[in-house]
Specification:
- There is one protein chain.
- The chain has 703 residues and is an alpha+beta fold.
- The protein has a five-stranded mixed sheet with strand order 2-1-5-13-14, covered by helices on one side. It has a five-stranded antiparallel sheet with strand order 7-6-18-17-16, with helices on both faces. Strands 3-4 form a two-stranded parallel sheet.
- The relative contact order is 0.11.
- The chain contains 21 helices and 18 strands.
- Helices cover 37% and strands 11% of the residues.
Length: 703
């Protein structure tokens, strides 16, 4: 139809021509780009909303440090955060920063803060291993994390780490970032920064580090506690070797330099290597907070410890533990006090790295016959003398019958003889006569603070005490009869010299806990323990020594507590699980440790003879020579003293009280075990029993 509308396909109003493939790519690329930009803006806005304030870059937020010095001013340890002035990167040997780059971020100078190549390589390695074996963080990312972020492992923190790493790269040069990293990273042992770490581990400036020392410090960063050269020397050595290999691969050092570094020993500082002193520091740490409160500033604690004696004690303990390990001797504790109660050496266990439980102060173990001096001091104060005749014969107290270690009875003897032979029947009978409550009071008076039960076996040492208590109590025998309280802190001050705490001397003077002639009697009898009795293995030629052995039932605990003028050392050995050792008595391993330590310590101490103590009562005359009586003791058992490794025929085992049962024989023996002294005895009174305390169970170098 003319003039009508046409519905055919014409060119005027037809569809747009189809896009070419290139046009489609450009179009969708633009769309995705816009949406990607929007997503990124929103994404970074969300994650950047609570980014930390980067103005704190140069602020150091740290806990106050506590520096511990020995009695001569030598450094023992530093607890808390240790920092040093920042190291100048240009002043360090080239191989020092290169060691960190080689092991932590080989492409440090070639990435913008994050390393896509390194991330991909780490991802592939981790997928192949099925676990995380390699990290992809750059050195800049690690710095960002250390400066600004928490250690939380989540996506948000990782994104913030990337953002801050890029910001650091835009703001600082590569060398400035590396210097910041080396001066702020944590190296373990409380040291932040390469200078503090070098001083802490090697007692030298970072400018003096050797290739091997630089490799060790670089290897620490992966896990400072796991690769510590102090507690994990072999693992630290292996890690340092890995760093040296990486340094060779990176061209930082030659193969010859690597070989030389491996053959040269790396010496960890004596301060950190002396790990047993850390038991002593732990003991003081709680006391500091009681004395001055929570530290708010750096402090210097001047202690009573003598590092030279401490080192000698460590060597003595290690030597005997290694020697007697086949006998089941696993742990040891040692406490040495001077006559004023100052702790001069303390060993709390065989290895601080393996166990921080302090057996010198916290463990409570049965004292065995090392407790008997409190029995005999009570006896002489009640009228006995070393010449009092007593009878070693069967005895029954209630339903309990103690027996001697030798399994035999020797009949009538002097009290001095019974002390030297450590005769159980006599000790039990004497304690029963003078009153076990009075024995407990005597032990309290001298310094035993643990619970003291009043059962009959108490006389033979069924009392759980710590080595610190035993040394504290025996100190009265060594210093003229004065009661002491063991302590380790002399003064606390700031680095500027302001005194925070000063131990005050007693205005009224020391408390006299033992008067004469009782102190004279006890020292004479305990000299006999070493000259002719169960402690002969501890004798040191030319020295005035006294002491007492102790061994508990089934050889679970063995003790030797001995002293000279103004110096006492208590030694314990045993196992944490309270199981038996194999024939170890107080005269074997403990006496050997004591003798080895004292042989090394006495020349330094220049200790005098055991002091006589307070004046004797007017008109008092000594009995016939006690020395001659004591000297005859060995004749009963032969002339061969027990050696370091021998089972001691003169020592004893603690016999636990038997279960209550109807007696089948009269409670008194046919032959009286002791002869009562003519002097009247003090009345017996029951002492209140406090609640028992819960029982606690408990390299040097590499290359």
């Amino acid at each position: 139809m003319a003039g009508g509308f046409s519905f055919g396909r014409g060119n005027g109003g037809g569809e747009k021509p189809a896009r070419t493939p290139l046009q489609r790519v450009l179009y969708w690329g633009a769309v995705l780009g816009v949406w990607g930009a929007i997503f990124l803006v929103v994404f970074f806005a969300v994650f950047a909303r609570d980014l930390p304030d980067t103005s704190t870059l140069y602020n150091v937020d740290r806990q106050p440090s506590i520096t511990y010095l020995d009695r001569n001013g030598a450094l023992i340890a530093v607890r808390g955060t240790q920092q040093a002035p920042p190291a100048d990167l240009d002043a360090l040997p080239d191989y020092v920063p290169a060691a960190f780059i080689a092991i932590e971020d080989r492409r440090f100078y070639h990435h913008p803060g994050f390393d896509p190549i390194g991330m991909s390589r780490a991802m592939v390695s981790n997928m192949r291993a099925g676990r995380v074996v390699q990290g992809g963080s750059t050195l800049t990312q690690q710095l960002a994390k250390n400066l600004f972020l928490s250690p939380d492992q989540n996506m948000k923190r990782k994104v913030q780490e990337l953002m801050l790493a890029v910001w650091l790269e835009m703001k600082f040069s590569k060398d400035e970032i590396l210097a910041l990293y080396l001066n702020r990273v944590y190296f373990g042992a409380g040291a932040y920064g390469i200078e503090a770490a070098s001083q802490r581990y090697f007692d030298k400036s970072a400018k003096q580090l050797t290739v091997g020392e630089a490799a060790l410090l670089a290897g620490l960063l992966k896990a400072p506690s796991r690769y510590s050269p102090v507690s994990e020397s072999e693992r630290a050595a292996n890690r340092a070797t890995v760093v040296l290999n990486e340094m060779v691969d990176a061209g930082v050092i030659t193969s010859e330099q690597r070989a030389q570094a491996v053959t040269e020993p790396v010496r960890v500082s004596r301060t950190l290597a002396t790990q047993h002193a850390q038991y002593f520091i732990d003991w003081l740490d709680r006391q500091i907070r009681e004395l001055v409160g929570e530290p708010t500033e750096d402090m210097i604690v001047e202690t009573t410890l003598d590092l030279t004696l401490q080192t000698q004690a460590e060597r003595a303990v290690r030597r005997i533990l290694d020697r007697d390990r086949s006998k089941g001797v696993e742990q040891a504790a040692l406490v040495a006090l001077d006559g004023e109660g100052r702790v001069r050496a303390m060993i709390g266990g065989s290895s601080y790295a393996d166990s921080q439980f302090n057996r010198a102060t916290e463990a409570r173990r049965q004292a065995g016959s090392a407790f008997k001096p409190f029995v005999y001091l009570t006896a002489v104060e009640s009228g006995y003398t070393p010449e009092t005749r007593v009878n070693d014969a069967p005895i029954r107290i209630g339903n309990w019958s103690p027996r001697n270690y030798s399994g035999t009875f020797n009949g009538e003897m002097t009290l001095a003889n019974a002390v030297a032979q450590s005769t159980n029947t006599v000790a039990a009978g004497v304690a029963d006569q003078v009153g076990r409550d009075n024995v407990a009071r005597t032990a309290r008076r001298l310094g035993i603070t643990s619970r003291i039960g009043l059962e009959p076996a108490m006389a033979l040492g069924a009392v759980e005490v710590s080595p610190l208590e035993m040394a504290q109590a025996y100190d009265a025998f060594a210093n003229g009869g004065r009661r002491v309280q063991a302590y380790g802190i002399s003064r606390i001050r700031t680095p500027e010299g302001r005194v925070i705490y000063q131990r005050a001397s007693r205005a009224e003077g020391p408390v006299q806990a033992i008067s004469n002639p009782y102190l004279y009697y006890m020292n004479q009898m305990m000299r006999g323990v070493i000259t002719s009795g169960s402690g002969r293995g501890a004798a040191i030629s030319g020295r005035d020594l006294a002491g007492k052995t102790g061994t508990t039932s089934d050889y679970k605990d063995a003790w030797f507590v001995g002293y000279t003028g103004g110096f006492v050392t208590a030694v314990w050995v045993g196992k944490d699980d309270n199981t038996a050792m194999r024939g170890v008595t107080g005269s074997s391993a403990p006496a050997a440790i004591w003798r080895n330590f004292m042989e090394a310590a006495l020349p330094r101490l220049n200790a005098p003879a055991i002091p006589d103590g307070p004046p004797m009562p007017e008109g008092w005359q000594p009995p016939s020579p006690v020395e001659s009586l004591i000297g005859q003791i060995g004749d009963l058992f032969g002339d061969n003293p027990p050696g370091d490794g021998a089972t001691d025929p003169l020592d004893e085992r603690l016999i636990e009280p038997q279960p209550a049962q109807r007696p089948t024989a009269p409670n008194r023996p046919e032959t009286p075990p002791v002869v009562r002294p003519t002097q009247p005895q003090p009345p017996r009174r029951e002492e209140p029993r406090p609640e028992p305390e819960p029982e606690k169970k408990s390299d040097p170098l590499f290359f």
